[in-house]
Amino acid sequence: MSETTGASYAAAGVDIEAGDRAVELMKEWVKKTQRAEVAGLGGLGGFAGLFDASALKRYERPLLASATDGVGTKVDIARRMGVYDTIGHDLVGMVVDDLVVCGAEPLFMTDYICVGKVHPERVAAIVKGIAEGCVLAGCALVGGETAEHPGLLGPDDFDVAGAGTGVVEAEHLLGPDRIRKGDAVIAMASSGLHSNGYSLVRHVLFDRAGWALDRQVEEFGRTLGEELLEPTKIYSLDCLALTRTTEVHAFSHVTGGGLANNLARVVPDALHATVDRSTWAPGAVFDLVGKAGQVERLELEKTLNMGVGMIAIVPADSVDAALTTLADRGIDSWVAGEITDRGAHTSGAELVGDYAK
């Protein structure tokens, strides 16, 4: 009789030892994100992350906010570039800046990394980026999961997702109920494409224009790949600082759907937000995508952020204080529009005029 070898997890393509190695490599980065509420509570490797909720006793009526997101097909750029330590910034930005829209302070995050094959150093680099993003956001990374899916994903394929929890005092909850006619719309500059619209960007620049990631682009002053991997700006601490220094009625995180659609989500039915394109000039990458793909302006605007990553809606008499606070924190910001009566407008927000040159 011929001798046969029994099946095993390793033979099926799952390397448990590599997963354990990845956990060891990422521990030092996760530790850098610790807040007082998680220090000494289990640490990485447990079945669940812990957060000391007694810290919420200082709130009269604490409201917990929750958000989850990924970074879409931007992961393909990271994979093709072989650069894995920035994509985590994008993940954190997508999650925590959704939390801060309602005025919530991000408290902690968990992540989920799915790979075709565990390369410990690669996974650790992804977590390093997530941890660095958490530090920038002021929240703790309390745990996560790395899953190996051989046969479903290629050996170099991966995806990332995350979930976050924040808290806001009920009486300080921001949103449509606070917005009033005459409020100013303040725009905060994005760092580039952030993490939305990459399916369009990849289709235009790779499939149609045939550009390579290592192509030097004069307008960028660097390669195409470096521009496309520019991390998402994380605004959470800047927005929270704004709420402490002046009156804020609402925020809007400009993600998938573009500026007008995301702004409309926080404008009450009776009011309308008008944003003047002439108050800023979108970065070169937006013009490049538009021209390379002959993409119409409205299509670009409903897909990409066009240079605005976050919006603050403040009373007119708070504008100067708001702009000063943001400038002091290194955030490029400007008055981009105003809140008016809805009137005959069918949508909650619109862009008017032409972009500055």
From TrEMBL:
Compartments it resides in: Cytoplasm
InterPro entries xref list: PurM-like_C_dom, PurM-like_C_sf, PurM-like_N, PurM-like_N_sf, PurM_cligase
A GO cellular component annotation in the UniProt record: cytosol
Gene3D superfamilies, per database record: PurM-like C-terminal domain (3.90.650.10), PurM-like, N-terminal domain (3.30.1330.10)
GO biological process: 'de novo' IMP biosynthetic process; adenine biosynthetic process
Domain PurM-like N-terminal: from-to ranges: 60-168
Pathway: Purine metabolism; IMP biosynthesis via de novo pathway; 5-amino-1-(5-phospho-D-ribosyl)imidazole from N(2)-formyl-N(1)-(5-phospho-D-ribosyl)glycinamide: step 2/2
A Gene Ontology molecular function term of the record: phosphoribosylformylglycinamidine cyclo-ligase activity
Catalytic reactions on record: 2-formamido-N(1)-(5-O-phospho-beta-D-ribosyl)acetamidine + ATP = 5-amino-1-(5-phospho-beta-D-ribosyl)imidazole + ADP + phosphate + H(+)
PurM-like C-terminal domain ranges (all copies): 180-345
Family matches, as CDD domains: PurM
Enzyme Commission number(s) of this protein: 6.3.3.1
Stored Pfam families: AIRS, AIRS_C
Key words, A-Z: ATP-binding, Cytoplasm, Ligase, Nucleotide-binding, Purine biosynthesis
NCBIfam families: purM
Family statement: Belongs to the AIR synthase family.
PANTHER family, alphabetized: TRIFUNCTIONAL PURINE BIOSYNTHETIC PROTEIN ADENOSINE-3, TRIFUNCTIONAL PURINE BIOSYNTHETIC PROTEIN ADENOSINE-3-RELATED
Protein name, entry field: Phosphoribosylformylglycinamidine cyclo-ligase
Species assigned in the record: Streptomyces finlayi
